[in-house]
Amino acid sequence: xxxxxxxxxxxxxxxxxxxxxxxxxxxxxxxxxxxxxxxxxxxxxxxxxxxxxxxxxxxxxxxxxxxxxxxxxxxxxxxxxxxxxxxxxxxxxxxxxxxxxxxxxxxxxxxxxxxxxxxxxxxxxxxxxxxxxxxxxxxxxxxxxxxxxxxxxxxxxxxxxxxxxxxxxxxxxxxxxxxxxxxxxxxxxxxxxxxxxxxxxxxxxxxxxxxxxxxxxxxxxxxxxxxxxxxxxxxxxxxxxxxxxxxxxxxxxxxxxxxxxxxxxxxxxxxxxxxxxxxxxxxxxxxxxxxxxxxxxxxxxxxxxxxxxxxxxxxxxxxxxxxxxxxxxxxxxxxxxxxxxxxxxxxxxxxxxxxxxxxxxxxxxxxxxxxxxxxxxxxxxxxxxxxxxxxxxxxxxxxxxxxxxxxxxxxxxxxxxxxxxxxxxxxxxxxxxxxxxxxxxxxxxxxxxxxxxxxxxxxxxxxxxxxxxxxxxxxxxxxxxxxxxxxxxxxxxxxxxxxxxxxxxxxxxxxxxxxxxxxxxxxxxxxxxxxxxxxxxxxxxxxxxxxxxxxxxxxxxxxxxxxxxxxxxxxxxxxxxxxxxxxxxxxxxxxxxxxxxxxxxxxxxxxxxxxxxxxxxxxxxxxxxxxxxxxxxxxxxxxxxxxxxxxxxxxxxxxxxxxxxxxxxxxxxxxxxxxxxxxxxxxxxxxxxxxxxxxxxxxxxxxxxxxxxxxxxxxxxxxxxxxxxxxxxxxxxxxxxxxxxxxxxxxx
Length: 748
Description:
By secondary structure, the chain is mainly beta.
């Protein structure tokens, strides 16, 4: 049976389970408006988020369902959470996350990210694992600031946790179906029940499909691009062989068949910021190919054993495999300037560029053993060990777009292995009923081995390599915090934490001859905040300030005049700012939320030189010359981090009108992303001004579990740049268009 067939059966079985289920009636609306408590596992145990000394935002329930409406992928989190940005030059396959400005613009399939995504307690390290579809979740937790003690390496910015709904004692589930713009169809469902005293299960799945709608003016094809079809499924089996032991097996898989990101030639105007006048969303002019295919599967085995009333042992095995292949027209147009007038466009195309990248094989294996102690007294502790192993093979290719059949003219193959070992411990102690002190540390030993070989060169040069490389490091992450509960509803906290991103190595030899690497990046973060519940739990206000310093900040030169991808370390990076989350239930049937963040980031180095753009852009940084007057590049010291807007804001509102056995409701959400620069250098062209995007849903929700609604995403039809390519022409890529549709849901 193929992966796609298996996923189709998973989705179908989850939806069909509704036919054999008994409805569970919805809970009546309380006459008194109250906010429900938020439970988090930010410290690997369940606890009230108001008592945790970490800046946390959760996205769950109806808010989560609304943000991902209409076939959206995980990038829907961008700017919907304070200090969080997500973008991608690979479309649905390869999201890049930034928290508090800390992220990585590198598009390489082996790029390390300083924001870790953790699925059911397993970190997904390679970027092609990180875009797993969102369905049947308890919620998403964003933990800001270094999380190295309990979650390990590559977390200087923070982590984003995804926790699936687990098998339980009661039979329950849901099915959801929607239809919208561009013939977008989505079916999602889940069903779980207990089979016996010892066994329970839950099966869930999602299918998302959208027709292409962008024309290719060069070939004359209509409705050729921006379509996708994706399946994902999850089967969970819970076995309780003894009263004190639970064994949970989680099998999951994904199949993604879609179009690669559309790079659009000369949609930016020289000397101006934003899209050029006359931009046509529905048309491109490509002479190259475009596709993306992705398959991934894995398992998580979790064993929880209660040794005694105070001591619990947890073992987690994670094994993930993936393959991905993507090809795109990188110059975003057709032809080339040297062919003469009329043989290139749109705008001036200096040379053709078409390439592909493929993860031929990826296997990630993790093992964690953790012991947790809590006897209800003043002290609580955790200790454990963690093992990580990754094997990877990547093939990069370039193509001669102008030759008949667009044959391959460049190829490089890379293999790599990453191994890491760590052990950790943390301790909490209640000094008084109001004051809790906590601290922890983690030792990590990491090593990366790398082999790259250029088998074919687009410039006529001979084969190169194999070139071997190895980087490694030993680091200690730690944190210390104090939590003071002035009252039951008012808590203050302060936290200091050190985290790190392991050493990185990069070798894209199709267009270059060298391998670059970067030393480990470390961060020391200071944070203080207040968490409060006011007006008899009708208002919740959480706010914090922070400051951090990055040592040996890892940066990536992407594209530019040399058309290279190269790693290097800056002496230091620095950031400071604040975050605030507000929830309010001022009256029955009305719920309001709002979030805001300010992030000031700066690359700090005496002199840090980066190449400028190959496209005709206007760079604002000072140019640096050698003694003979030759340009060395531009001094980027003092610049903000790329893709790090200072201001992010968001708010939601839900209002319901009870009527008979249910309610009519309306929900709206809005997000603001501030002015953003895309590259290490500052330029007029390669960035975007601040903008708002909004969504809306309205419908009927019955006490019998039936819901019907209409929805719209990007309701103001805002069209903006999300990124750019700077080595050929003024190429850019844009956000998702306005969409709308209908949805029905049944909970049982």
